[in-house]
């Protein structure tokens, strides 16, 4: 698979102060437009890079929703990679793969007392429809085969390993508790088996 390397330097993170480069890809399994954000040329370094697979979350990443911790996890990772280098694979898989409009429907159900998984199930979806095949394809296109994965989600570890990526270390993010997301985080721990210290 060939990748299109449109290296454009830009600033990211809170206050837009961290240097990074963005890369686009072709030949992925679907037509989704995933990108890699590379810090300190981590895809060309000799060390095993930090990598985070971050699924798009418009409500959390852009609008800082109180329903989740996605934006905070992304900000934490950007800060960490701004210092140590790394690669964020920004994946177009909104709402654990159910899409933005369905996620908004799930929010309505969560307001009525369902947890995030129950709401998705009530709408006829599985717990997590994301597929990380393309994340593995992106890493292999960057010639990155061994990583230190920034995640709390065991599904991500398992799927990358199944696609030939060696996980040298799992680096957990912090628990970003705020008004409105405690039940969401508790469901991630109890139902999704995420590693979070609440």
Automatic annotation (TrEMBL):
<dbReference type="GO" id="GO:0003935">
    <property type="term" value="F:GTP cyclohydrolase II activity"/>
</dbReference>
<keyword id="KW-0342">GTP-binding</keyword>
<dbReference type="InterPro" id="IPR032677">
    <property type="entry name" value="GTP_cyclohydro_II"/>
</dbReference>
<comment type="pathway">
    <text>Cofactor biosynthesis; riboflavin biosynthesis; 5-amino-6-(D-ribitylamino)uracil from GTP: step 1/4.</text>
</comment>
<comment type="similarity">
    <text>In the N-terminal section; belongs to the DHBP synthase family.</text>
</comment>
<feature type="active site" description="Nucleophile">
    <location>
        <position position="130"/>
    </location>
</feature>
<protein>
    <recommendedName>
        <fullName>GTP cyclohydrolase-2</fullName>
        <ecNumber>3.5.4.25</ecNumber>
    </recommendedName>
</protein>
<feature type="binding site">
    <location>
        <position position="68"/>
    </location>
    <ligand>
        <name>Zn(2+)</name>
    </ligand>
</feature>
<keyword id="KW-0547">Nucleotide-binding</keyword>
<dbReference type="GO" id="GO:0008270">
    <property type="term" value="F:zinc ion binding"/>
</dbReference>
<feature type="binding site">
    <location>
        <position position="70"/>
    </location>
    <ligand>
        <name>Zn(2+)</name>
    </ligand>
</feature>
<feature type="binding site">
    <location>
        <position position="151"/>
    </location>
    <ligand>
        <name>GTP</name>
    </ligand>
</feature>
<feature type="binding site">
    <location>
        <position position="156"/>
    </location>
    <ligand>
        <name>GTP</name>
    </ligand>
</feature>
<dbReference type="GO" id="GO:0005829">
    <property type="term" value="C:cytosol"/>
</dbReference>
<feature type="binding site">
    <location>
        <position position="73"/>
    </location>
    <ligand>
        <name>GTP</name>
    </ligand>
</feature>
<keyword id="KW-0862">Zinc</keyword>
<keyword id="KW-0479">Metal-binding</keyword>
<dbReference type="GO" id="GO:0009231">
    <property type="term" value="P:riboflavin biosynthetic process"/>
</dbReference>
<feature type="active site" description="Proton acceptor">
    <location>
        <position position="128"/>
    </location>
</feature>
<comment type="function">
    <text>Catalyzes the conversion of GTP to 2,5-diamino-6-ribosylamino-4(3H)-pyrimidinone 5'-phosphate (DARP), formate and pyrophosphate.</text>
</comment>
<feature type="binding site">
    <location>
        <position position="116"/>
    </location>
    <ligand>
        <name>GTP</name>
    </ligand>
</feature>
<feature type="binding site">
    <location>
        <position position="57"/>
    </location>
    <ligand>
        <name>Zn(2+)</name>
    </ligand>
</feature>
<dbReference type="InterPro" id="IPR000926">
    <property type="entry name" value="RibA"/>
</dbReference>
<feature type="domain" description="GTP cyclohydrolase II">
    <location>
        <begin position="19"/>
        <end position="171"/>
    </location>
</feature>
<keyword id="KW-0378">Hydrolase</keyword>
<dbReference type="InterPro" id="IPR036144">
    <property type="entry name" value="RibA-like_sf"/>
</dbReference>
<feature type="binding site">
    <location>
        <begin position="52"/>
        <end position="56"/>
    </location>
    <ligand>
        <name>GTP</name>
    </ligand>
</feature>
<feature type="binding site">
    <location>
        <begin position="94"/>
        <end position="96"/>
    </location>
    <ligand>
        <name>GTP</name>
    </ligand>
</feature>
<keyword id="KW-0686">Riboflavin biosynthesis</keyword>
<comment type="similarity">
    <text>Belongs to the GTP cyclohydrolase II family.</text>
</comment>
<dbReference type="GO" id="GO:0005525">
    <property type="term" value="F:GTP binding"/>
</dbReference>
<dbReference type="Pfam" id="PF00925">
    <property type="entry name" value="GTP_cyclohydro2"/>
</dbReference>
């Amino acid at each position: 698979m060939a990748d299109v390397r449109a290296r454009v330097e830009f600033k990211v993170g809170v206050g837009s102060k961290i240097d990074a480069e963005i890369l686009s890809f072709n030949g992925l399994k679907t037509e989704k437009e995933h990108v890699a954000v590379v810090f300190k040329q981590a895809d060309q370094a000799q060390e095993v890079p930090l990598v985070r697979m971050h699924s798009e979350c418009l409500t959390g990443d852009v609008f800082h929703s109180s329903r989740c911790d996605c934006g905070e996890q992304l900000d934490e990772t950007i800060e960490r990679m701004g210092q140590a280098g790394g690669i964020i694979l920004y994946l177009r898989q909104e709402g654990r793969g159910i899409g933005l409009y369905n996620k908004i429907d799930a929010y309505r159900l969560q307001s009525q007392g369902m947890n995030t998984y129950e709401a998705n199930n009530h709408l006829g979806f599985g717990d997590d429809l994301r597929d990380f095949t393309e994340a593995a394809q992106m890493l292999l296109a960057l010639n990155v085969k061994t990583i230190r994965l920034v995640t709390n989600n065991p599904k991500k570890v398992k799927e990358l390993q199944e696609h030939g990526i060696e996980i040298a270390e799992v680096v957990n993010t912090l628990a970003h508790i705020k008004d409105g997301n405690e039940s969401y985080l508790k469901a991630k721990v109890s139902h999704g088996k995420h590693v979070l210290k609440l």
